Amino acid sequence: MPTDEDMKMQPVLIAGKWRQAQDPADSFTAVNPAIKIPLPERYPVSSLADVELALEAAQQAVVALRSHSPEVITAFLELFAEKIEAQAEELVL
User: Fold this and answer.
1) Claim: this prediction has a pTM higher than 0.85
2) Would you say 5 and 43 are in contact if contact means Cβ atoms under 8 Å apart?
């Protein structure tokens, strides 16, 4: 079984880009709930720096969304939900 040092830290998604966490506070492994076995990857516990970057990205997203009508946003969210539901079998074991 690999040790923590052998497992690669998974990236974080901030502002639409995957990148390594900045100075993570800690890390953890997730467990596959269907079979109760730990996944091989490590996931970072984000630092304040990453949280601040995520909040800045969220604020920019809000500003961008304000330029669209509620109908356009609704249509996007409904399409997004349909695409997730279409892949539900692959997403949920």
Assistant:
1) no
2) no
